[in-house]
Amino acid sequence: MKAMILAAGLGTRLSPFTANIPKPLFPVGGRPLLDIIIHSLQNAGCESIIINTHHLYKKIDFFLSSRKYSIPVFTRYEPLILGTGGAIKNVADFWDDQPFMVVNSDIITDIDLREVYDFHLNHKYPATLVLHDYKEFNNVLISREDFIGGFYKEESNENIGYEKKLAFTGIQVLDPDILDFIPDGLFFSIIDAYRELIFSGQRLKAFIAQKHYWQDIGTPKSYRKAVADKMAPEAFKQAWPDFTFSEIKYDRIKGDGSDRQWYRVMAEDQAYSEAHGKQNDVPLQKLIMVDHGIRAQKAISEVDSFIAIGQHLYAMGVPIPRIYLYDKFSGLVFLEDLGDVKFQKLVLSTKDPEEVALYYKTVIDVLIKMSTVGVKDFDISWTYQTPYYSKELILEKECRYFVDAFLRGYLGMNYFFEDFKDEFESLAEKTLKFPVNGFMHRDLQSRNIMVKDNKFYIIDFQGGRIGPVQYDLASLLIDPYVDLSYELRAQLVDYCIKGLSKFFQINEDQFRYCFRYCSITRNLQVLGAFGNLIRMNNKSYFEQYIPAAIKTLKYNLSAFEDTEFPGIKAVVEEIMVSSATKERIED
Length: 587
Description:
By secondary structure, the chain is an alpha+beta fold. Helices cover 39% and strands 19% of the residues.
């Protein structure tokens, strides 16, 4: 048996991700799909393979040159794409007098290719197409005797005698005689050759696959599903080596301010199900899958930081979800499921102020541990934004963000960064005057802290870098999602200073100095983020938290002399008295 893998396509439905890597080299479970297909053909007894190429063909050639297969694998470059039929005819010199197999390069399946080939050898018809029931693509007419009657949008009067429609899997076996129905050197679809064969009175046979796995990777959605299906069983094995599971289900869960997509992945206990039956409540094991999106650049991206920083913090004993499995190209990461209870929910549902204070002190203990042990052996190359909390970051990602996304974008006010430039410069410089530097989370607020079994866990750590612990403390204490009292905030600052004193020699006045300015920069960042999320991401949910953030900003600015930040203070006053905002803030 010889075989051909069709791999010349542009992969336009996967654009822009195919700009730098051809679709056949997209990894599934850590292996390029082309490699998976070659091994499947090799295991089926294939003696030689040819691959047609066009888009980024040199990368396919380079990949193949790095592999050592037990059978010859050739490529045939097409300067102009010839289509499925044209590609098969273009390698006519490769075929011999035996039936040959043709496989699309964008499918992953466990269909037994040897069984398909033997099926073809045992009938007299010129082609066998492997079909299956796949509702989305069911467009091939099939008779009761499993003969193919037509493709795609055939007229209804031509459907007589055909009882169902199935989908083509991208796997076919052809007799060499079919080459006579394909013109030389032209773009030509193999479907047109099949139509001509049927019109001439010849019959095509269907091999109907059942109880199999099949998935194409032609779109970002289908590629993501193929990778998830491959990774999920391994992730469960990593988490529970002795757990036997059957069906795996995905349940989309609501994210927050991020563009990433989140899923709860659930697997039933197969042994329990077999012993007690489906009618009983079958125990589930659960993981979280986060989808960062397919990689579009070579440079370090969010998923890289999520993985590297997450593994580092976990190894250092910081309470974060354990990462079990990941794929940096697809952007999928499987991690520990910490449940659904966020710290925000716990705080808002707790009536006893002393109990709330105790919760926050416990979280501050975690913050201190994260800052002090997280900085040890921290590699700044892990960061995808900036390695340090710097003046440039404060000016661009907090001050300018506040003006552009909140003042101008959300409120429609006619202000520009330059109107406050001197004040922003002063703010940035003073913020960095007395930092106690460690690992800095940069978004440590109540919605990024999970509660499970009376323990607190930190999530969304991918934006971590080296920076002042005072910033994370400010993020936690001025958090508009819970709006703590000013008195409790002051008590918790004292508690943090006392805790940090076990690790550093702390100058209390300098610590508070940095904390006050970090509170301002964090407040500006929060308002900028709210403005952006509401206006650009249509997440109006965050609008309810703006009044608390404005009120806190005004309060913290009031601690400074009248001559410090007069422009920022004035614009906050303007916001406070505006008819649209005043009522919400006073409420």
